[in-house]
Structures are given as structure tokens and as C-alpha cells.
Predict the 3D structure of the following.
Amino acid sequence: MFNIIERYINNMSVDDIRNFATAKDINLSDDELTFTYNFVKKNYRDFLKNPKVFDIRRYKNNYSEENFNKISKVWNEYYNRYSSYL
């Protein structure tokens, strides 16, 4: 499973991040988009190794309050749905 995720992340583009966010009604600024893209590319392996350690609140200052609240909601939804597979 990790190979599938790794291949997806390696091929992921900024537009993929933007499209996912837009589909979730999150309108990221250019800075927020760049931060998110770089963060995912750089940190996905660490997250997959130990997802319970990840604390999204540490990154609150990188987003507007509105976007952070929406991102937190999406994060919790996906974490609750898929954490048992990690």
C-alpha cells in the first residue's frame, strides 16, 4: 500500500492539491497552497510511519482561520475513515 501512496505523492502536482481543496470548499491562497504542497511532499513518509503523532494544530498559523477550520474538518474526516489502514 505504501508504494501506491509513494507513487501518487511523487506524481502529485500543485494543481492536484488545489483541485482537492476546491472540491472540499477550501480556497487556498497561493502561500497556503505552496505550504501544503511542500509539506505533503516532504512529510508524507513520517506521517505514514506514525500517524498518531501528527498534530494538525501545529500548522494553524500557515492558514487563514477559515481555511484552517475547514482543513481540520477534512483532516479529521479522512483520519477517522482511513487511520486503521495505516
